Amino acid sequence: MARATIAAQDITGSAINWSQTGTLLSFTAANVTDxxxxxxTGRTILIAWNxxxxxxxxxxxxxxxxxxxxxGNATRALAAGAMAMFSLVRDGWEQTxxxxxxxxxxxxxxxxxxxxFAVLTLVN
Length: 124
What we know:
The chain is mostly beta strands and 124 residues long. Helices cover 6% and strands 41% of the residues. The protein contains two helices and eleven strands; from the N terminus they run ββαββββββαβββ. The chain has helices spanning 14-17, 90-93, and strands at residues 4-5, 9-10, 28-29, 36-39, 43-50, 56-60, 74-78, 83-88, 94-95, 105-110, 115-123. The strands form two sheets. Strands 1, 4, 6, 7, 9 and 10 form a six-stranded mixed beta sheet that branches.
């Protein structure tokens, strides 16, 4: 099955940098069946929030890279109400689900729809 896309929120504009009211983040529930992805464009922050009352698990797909002390996929158990943040860069985090697609993606998933994801693009 194809992963469900969550659109990245661009937070690079000057309106964001000089805002006196802050920026509202948009969170999307995890697609437990199909899993999730977002276009790998520049530097990205992935925020996972467990909005439920039980501990939930998330996985961010990665490649092992000894030079960065990364052994493979990043996994995290999120307690009720907890948030986790991942800084994603193309080196090791980008994936593809179709060899015909020229664009790479960030792949991530959760074991329950209580987990909500927000994807923030920092640099294009």
